[in-house]
Each structure stands twice: as C-alpha cells, then as structure tokens.
Design brief:
167 residues; alpha+beta; 3-stranded antiparallel sheet; 43% helix; 16% strand; disordered C terminus
C-alpha cells in the first residue's frame, strides 16, 4: 500500500467509491472561451449585443450607399437624355443682346435673345429650358420631349405662356 495516495488506499479497502473516469477531451482550446450568446436569464451578453449592433449599422450603411448609387445613376441617365435633346436643339445666339425676363422657380430670370428670338418667344414659337445651370431657347417639340424626361427642366412652356410675363 505504500506509494499510493490516500484515496487509492481507501478504495482498495472498499471504504471509498471508485472514481468515475473523466471523458478525454477532443482537441485543445487555443484561446479563451467565446462569450456565451445568452446567459442563464435569457439575456444577450454585452459582447454579443455590441457585435449585433455593429452588424446592423453596417447593413444600414450599405443600404444607404446602394440607394445613393442608384439615385446618382438615375440622375446621370436623366442628364444624359437631356443633353441629347437640348444641346443640338439649343438656339442660343452668341450675339444676343436683348434681355428677356421670365419667371422660373418663383424668381424672375433673364436670358439674352436676339430681336427675332424675342418675337418668336412672344408668339409662342420658342420655349426656354434649363440645363446645367443655363437657360436654352428651344422649339416647342423639344420642350415637349424635355417635359417627358424631366418636367422641372422647363422654364417657359410656349403653349402655357403667362399673360403677365415681363418682356
């Protein structure tokens, strides 16, 4: 009996219960145990809550960025379509020297026209559209096409001319 532990000696005499064998572990842990998702009370741990919030915020940022890209793409398509309509049809003249006033977006705006263009505007044979910060004289059929693409781009519609416009 010498060299054995006291527990072994008691087991040999039948005074102690035999020790239950512990199951061998499969694999070794390399770091600290991962935080439990739920405590015994059913609450989410602080680390899990922070990680969930971070994932939600990331999803929200991605969704916002995706919506912004789609909106930019839509605006670019509209501007490209307006450029194809307005640039070739613009009747603005470099030697225009007469001020023609009109109302747009609640303010009185000005465009320089020639005498012939002013008469055509007054008769309703020309319209005014805004594009990339400038005003362009175009024919009524171009105005109708611009209305289909972007209604807000029409500054003066020839068929809907106001009687109280300034000339």
């Amino acid at each position: 009996m010498s060299g054995s532990s006291m527990a072994d000696q008691l087991r040999q005499l039948g005074l102690a219960k035999k020790a239950a064998k512990k199951p061998a572990r499969k694999g070794r842990r390399k770091g600290p145990a991962k935080a439990k998702q739920k405590d015994s009370g059913g609450e989410i741990s602080l680390a899990a809550a922070y990680s969930e919030r971070a994932r939600d915020e990331q999803r929200q940022r991605e969704a916002t960025a995706r919506e912004k890209r789609l909106e930019q793409q839509r605006r670019k398509e509209i501007n490209d379509a307006l450029a194809k309509l307005i640039k070739p049809a613009s009747q603005n003249s470099k030697d225009a020297d007469i001020d023609r006033f009109f109302e747009y977006a609640g303010k009185i705006r000005k465009i320089f026209v020639t005498a012939e263009q002013q008469q055509a505007l007054n008769r309703g044979e020309l319209g005014i559209v805004t594009f990339r910060g400038g005003y362009h004289l175009v024919t009524p059929d171009v105005v109708e096409q611009v209305v289909k693409v972007k209604d807000e781009a029409v500054a003066h519609h020839p068929q809907v001319a106001d009687d109280d416009e300034l000339t």
